[in-house]
Amino acid sequence: MSGTKVYIIGVGIHNFGRTDGVSGLDQGVFAVRQALADAGVTWQDIQFAYGGSDSAGNPDTMVDRLGLNGTQFINVKNGCATGGSALFSAQMAIKSGEFDLGLAVGFDKHPRGAFDAKPAEYNLPEWYGDAGYMVTTQFFAAKIMRYMQLHGISRRTLGMVAEKAFLNGVHAPHAWRREPVDLDVILNAPMVSDPFTKFMFCSPGEGGVALVLASEKKMRELGATPIQLAAATMRTRPPGSFEVFAPSIDIGGGVNTATRLASAAAFDIAGIAPADIDVAQLQDTEAGAEIMHMAENGFCADGEQEAWLAEGRTRIDGRLPVNTDGGCLACGEPIGASGLRQVYENVIQLRGAGGGRQVPGNPLTAYSHVYGAPGVSAVTILKR
Question: Do the strands 101-109 and 279-282 form a parallel or antiparallel pair, or are they unpaired?
Answer without folding.
Answer: unpaired
